[in-house]
Amino acid sequence: MKIAIASGKGGTGKSTVAANLAYVLSRSRDVVLVDCDVEEPNLHLFFPAAAVDVPVTTPVPAIDPARCTFCGECGKFCRFGALSVLKDSVLVFPELCHSCGGCVLVCPQGAVREVPRTVGRVACSRPLPRLTLVSGVLNEGEVQAPAVIRAAKMLGEGHPLAVYDAAPGIACPVIETLEGSDACVLVTESTPFGLHDLSLAAEVVEKLGIPAGVVINRSDGEDAPTVAFCREHDLPVLMTIPFSREIAAVQNRGGLICRDLPGWEERFAGLVRKVSP
Amino acid sequence: MIVCITARAAGTDAPVEERFGRAPYFVFVNTETGASESVQNPLVDAAGGVGPRAVQMLSEHGATAVITGQVGGNAGKALEAGGIKAYAYRGSGSVADALAGYTAGTLTPLALS
Fold first, then answer.
1. Are strands B36-40 and B25-30 parallel, antiparallel or unpaired?
2. Residues of B with CB below 8 A from A79's CB?
């Protein structure tokens, strides 16, 4: 089973929920936790351990000068501006390339071939006997987050149980993470922004046909609009985490509330039973 | 030689546009004959990578100099590789005014990289 943790709004507590959920799961079974927030992965802060790095590459064009006639077809085709065909040279801007392979197809001379280019890495570690952590890391300045997410998810394959921690928002990286997930936990906070972005994320999981539930984090007790939204959209409220200084302090030092605060292991076990019966 | 001036509309009376890759029009002027050709820029609303693609359009039209407000890093690299010189025009005048400045030699060259 694959469980994705998403939110819409950033900073609602996706990683907190993912880390605690994975920890509780790993008490009784093998689980892989995949950090799919590749632009700012942070789950290693909860689970420090020595990691093995696997590079992630994507194909980018290379021009064979012996065959190229500077006809310009590849440059006209590329909507990302990764190829500039000038009078007597072709410039390749690999950081603009989205690896669609179109330039190879349109070149009448067969002068374009693809070469691998490293855009990130996946760090694999075993912080606990039954917990594997797979963190996708996109190199700074790169745009191809989905490629790194795909690689991280692939390295997490083979485990019967996987927890995916998604990036904030609802753009390509989140869609890539949700793809193939069996269930989704949407983490929100009881603020107007939290509710607004929850509604966007709820629409996405509905379109993708993934059953979802909601965790309300940092609840100040004024959750009525969020609870009403969940009721209207058939989203069960799986858990409510209060806005508490004690929880913030544990979180702040990289701790796990289910391990460090009494009563919370049982509450996260309750969350486990609801999402993975 | 052919000089390209980035513009907000077609024709030599059009105001100069300071943005390079997202300029609505490229006005190409042949300095020997005085003939001009205005080309609408299809990249105005493109997501990204407009700089190098605009340079490719300039290259196709045989331009060897461009007058604009400013160029970005990728466009600069492509202009340099294509042997197209870039000059800054930051006034509120027309394409014809910018061209007059270029012929008089009063425009500053833009650093490309």
1. antiparallel
2. 46-47, 49
Q: Which CATH fold topology does B2-109 show?
A: Nucleotidyltransferase; domain 5 (3.30.420)
Question: CA–CA separation, A59 vs A72, rounded Å?
Answer: 20
Domain that holds residue A162: 2-56+120-275
Residue B23 above 80 pLDDT? yes
Residue A276 clears pLDDT 80, i.e. is over it: no
- pTM, full prediction: 0.82
* CA dist., res. A229 & res. A199, Å (int): 8
Q: At B103, which helix (H) or strand (E)?
A: helix B95-104
Q: Chain A interface, mutation test: which of B50, B74, B79, B80, most A Cβ atoms within 10 Å?
A: B74
Q: Please check whether residue A12 is in contact with residue A192, taking contact to mean a CB–CB distance below 8 angstroms.
A: no
Do A100 and A167 sit in the same domain of this protein?
Answer: no
Query: Which residue, among A242, A245, A230, has the nearest Cα to A199 in the 3D structure?
Result: A230
Which ipTM score applies to this complex? 0.76
| CB-based contact A132:A159 (threshold 8 Å) | yes
